Amino acid sequence: MSVKKKESDWSVSEIKAAVDAYLKMLALEKKGQKFVKTVVNLALREAALPTRTKGSVEFRMQNISTVLMKMDREFIKGYKPARNVGSNVEQAIRAVLTEKGIQPGDPKAPTADEETLERRAAVLQKQNITEPPKGIKKPKRAASSRTVYVRDPEVRAWVRNEAAGHCDGCKKPAPFQKLGLPYLEVHHVKPLAEKGSDQISNAVALCPNCHRRCHYSNDREEFTALLYEQVARLIPE
């Protein structure tokens, strides 16, 4: 009976095999194409990783997500970043990613991925941006199975900081915190789907209740008009 290797014993070739498989799945996810993680996991264990368990391969994929997150790059949604990654493992994964041309991302770069956008905006919020960002006048639709648009994390961060922890609609404090910051949802007064801009002149920070009110309430038009009155920077588009 073969003895399973310890997690710390992963060789460079094994790390490369895991990263290769991960990046192929990530490419499919970005295109909106489906894949089955368990099938990929099994294929790896039948070929490049014969001494590894299903759980071991799964955990390594989560490690890769962690490293990509730290590099400010998108990662596979189904592989939640592991909380603890050994420094040697992290360095090995990062080295393979770098070898494949994947460099740290720009935290200010626009993105259509909601998790990446939220993470980048949180980092920028904590930097207390003082200069109003330009934003994106004509946001582009991203190549996805869903209707999503490329948005500017600086706009999200700036609008939230301007709200100072209070809803731009009801003026009440944010209901809770997320990532160490008051939780407010950034709402585009003229929807992006209706050719609205992703700029501070078309965005407000709302509590979840007021955000839903903008979309579903019987008085949503009146409430939107109130936002224009209350937030001086807003410009009708």
Automatic annotation (TrEMBL):
Q: Which UniProt keywords apply?
A: Endonuclease, Hydrolase, Nuclease
Which Pfam families does the record associate with it? HNH
Q: Which InterPro entries match?
A: HNH (IPR002711), HNH_nuc (IPR003615)
The UniProt entry, under Gene3D superfamilies, shows:
1.10.30.50
Asked if the record carries the keyword Hydrolase, the reply is yes
Annotated ranges, domain HNH nuclease: 154-212
Q: Where is this region: Disordered?
A: 124-145
Enumerate the GO terms in the molecular function aspect: endonuclease activity; nucleic acid binding; zinc ion binding
Keyword Glycoprotein on this protein?
no
Q: Under which name does UniProt file this protein?
A: HNH endonuclease
